[in-house]
């Protein structure tokens, strides 16, 4: 007598693939300035530093080149925080201008999930404009 199979077909990719999935969803168009403040001698700063590394990559910076990333290193045993100043064009439609994430007890994956939930979701959708050209217009543009 056999037991029917009741599990998943394949295993999940793990934390690394989940972080990669969240990084692909990051959009900085709603942010004007990101300030990451941490004490390097604190016990729970590793995930905040990893978030800083991921968010400072060139691929993510291309989503909004006008967004400035500032790192503040303090030595006062304070909790690591991530402050995001919302862009004025987006802040008009929302009720807040600043978002603060206290990342002391969060993992890097949780920080990225919160960032996508609260910041990337505010980014304005890109407007795709497509123009339909007729064969006659294409021929005229080739002859010029």
From TrEMBL:
UniProt xrefs under InterPro entries = mtLSU_mL53, Ribosomal_mL53
What is the designated name of this protein? Answer: Large ribosomal subunit protein mL53
Cellular localisation: Mitochondrion
Q: Which organism is it from?
A: Parnassius mnemosyne (clouded apollo)
GO CC annotation terms, alphabetical: mitochondrial large ribosomal subunit
Q: Which domain of life is it from?
A: Eukaryota
Annotated family: Belongs to the mitochondrion-specific ribosomal protein mL53 family.
Ribonucleoprotein: is it a keyword of this entry?
yes
Q: Which UniProt keywords apply?
A: Mitochondrion, Ribonucleoprotein, Ribosomal protein, Transit peptide
